Amino acid sequence: MGRPHSRCQGLAPSDRRAWGRAAAFVLIAGWILLSPAYVQILGRRSRFVRPWVMFRGSGVGLVDAEFYLRQPDGTLVPLDRFATLGYAGPSSAPDEVRRIRGEEGLRQATQSLAEALGTDADLRVRARLAGRRGWVPLADPSRPPERDSDRSGP
Amino acid sequence: MNRLRAWADRLGAWALHTEGSTRSSALIRIGLAATLWTRWGRDLMPAHNPSFPWPFWLALSASFYLSTTLMFAGLFSRPAAVWAGLTALTLYGVGGQADPVVWVSHHTYLLAFATLLCGLTPCGSSYSLDRWRAVRRAGRRGQAPPPERGNLWGLRLIALQVTAVYLWSALSKLNGRFLSGPSLEYAFLSTYLTPRPVPLPGFGAVVVGLAWITVALEVAVGVGMLFPRVRRWVVLPGLGMHAAFYVLLPVRTFSVTMWILYLAYFDADAVHEVIGRMEGEPPEGTGSHAPPDPQTRGWS
Which of A9, A24, A32 is closest, CB to CB, to B161? Predict the structure, then answer.
């Protein structure tokens, strides 16, 4: 923005302060520019080095799930799981209900909905897990979902 | 060889030997102090002790409030900024034991480290109690007020830090999970409880486009902001990108921190002139300004 107006001042080599500043600049700039390589390129871990890695862990392990009620004619009607569980909306539900974490969380969420709907309801789920390398399919609405009660032994 | 030497000389002049107005540094000091309060002020209240030993917590809390208050007011500005930066880095270092979400993230590290670097800028020579005391002292001696000028090597380090954030961040995004969309969808899922906050057909393609635009912008802004001719083209997209992050995702103070630190890229005397014009000051050449220096042209 605009022309550079700053003034450059010559420095005598004997100026200790200037040399100290130059050394400090090289050290700090080197740290700023190169230290992330220790983690991001060499793959090492250190609590003293800040890698600039964003969006890598955010959301990993969460489940993107859509619930449906299967009608006798085979059509799938979307289900509002918060309303079904008695919440006014997502914001009024506790976090463990709002966010479904992992396969176990999906089983528990499905179980809660099935209990709220009653035994006659044909509950179906389409779900995928936010995995480290991409989406992992968990449930398909063409088949009845796995519930917590399915895992209990005889 | 001569060309390389000339380039190195220009780089050295830009980095170490540039004198300029201190107003940019002062604005960064004030902005960072306010951002520190926004980020940690509530968390550091005595009532919110996150299971640290009480004396340690009290010392950290007192150190934070005292140093940031001095920094904001501009009293012993540079030592106060170093003090506040070291306090914030301590919070970053030990806070993970209490709550990694609140204390340990790239947001908090950038804020803390930039505050420390602010202590290397002439941030007390404008808009500060330090300045007010200096003007009064000069008045008592019958002298003119001291010029608002100083060496800008600290501002250069802040600019390099912002560039490093962009370039390393772009490098970390060069993978299939980010460029094909899932990473952004995960962030939406975490924030909006759905990876498709906008229920439009083809939103998946929009997310892929956003991912590529983000990486391209990070490289363009990170490098381009260093060069005046390119800066004019990348500054608004860069500000817009951070505005979008702030509105769409829970990035907290990261966006405003980056906005404040953008000041470090701009020619300090140009910023001084703009502020002076707004305040009705006489134009360039009649105040504390120095004539343009061809050696730093193209860098500052």
Answer: A32
- CB-CB neighbors (< 8 A) of A12 in chain B: none
Does the beta carbon of B186 lie under 8 angstroms from any beta carbon of chain A? yes
Residue A101 contacts B where some CB pair is shorter than 8 Å: no
| Phi/psi at A135 (5° precision) | -65, 140
Q: What are the contacts of B174-177 at 24+ separation with CB within 8 A?
A: B174/B215, B176/A133, B176/A134, B177/A132, B177/A133, B177/A134
Domain edges within chain B: 20-151+284-291, 159-251
Residue A16 neighbours by CB distance under 10 Å: 9
Write out chain B residues lying below 8 Å of A137, CB-based: none
Longest dimension (CA), chain A: 91
Could you list the mean pLDDT of each consecutive 10-residue stretch along chain B, which spans 300 residues?
90 94 98 96 80 84 96 98 96 73 80 98 98 97 96 98 98 95 94 88 92 97 97 97 93 95 97 94 58 50
Angle between the N-to-C axes of helices B23-40 and B54-73, in degrees from 0 to 180, rounded to the nearest 10: 150
Rounded to whole angstroms, the maximal C-alpha distance in chain B is: 73
| Identity of the residue numbered B163 | T
Nearest-CA neighbor of B156 among B110, B118, B113?
A: B118
B269 → closest Cβ in A5, A47, A135? A5
In sequence order, which residues have a C-beta less than 8 Å from that of residue B168 and are 6 or more positions away? Answer: A36, A40, A51, A52, A53
pLDDT at residue B48, as a whole number: 77
The H-assigned helical ranges of chain B are 2-16, 23-40, 54-73, 77-95, 100-103, 106-118, 129-140, 153-172, 176-179, 182-192, 203-224, 228-248, 254-261, 268-278
Q: Which residue in chain B has the smallest CA separation from A132?
A: B177
Per-residue pLDDT of B167-189, as tens digits, reads 999 999 999 999 999 999 999 99
Give the per-residue pLDDT at A2.
38
Residue type, B129: L
Residues of chain B contacting A33 with CB distance shorter than 8 Å: 160, 164
Note the ipTM here.
Answer: 0.89
Share of chain B above pLDDT 90, in %: 76
